[in-house]
Amino acid sequence: MSRRRLLALVPLALVLLAGCGHAPMPEKAVEQKASEELAKQIGLAPVVDCPEDLVSRSGATMSCTLSDPNGSEQKYSMTVRVVSLENGVAKLKFAIDDESG
């Protein structure tokens, strides 16, 4: 996956993720949503690795790592942000950070 292709994704789509009240959003659910949204944008679903569950609070952020599912060693940092939380549904924004790892 080329850096140019990934950087074209900044800023990514806003995504809705259902949660239960203010319980944290499970790490695996956030990873799956991020991968699905990137696949819609670039036609390739990257491997997304987040370190933990995401706090269900407007403005909360978490840094995750993206890697190429085709085996490239290149990794990219992505920030996940909770834009809003209403009636147990979180609106998330995924953005590729400027620097690759």
UniProtKB/TrEMBL annotation:
InterPro entries for this protein: DUF4333
Signal peptide start-end: 1-23
Transmembrane segments: none
Residues covered by the DUF4333 domain: 20-80
Keywords from the UniProt entry: Signal
Name listed for the protein in its UniProt record: DUF4333 domain-containing protein
Source organism (scientific name): Mumia xiangluensis
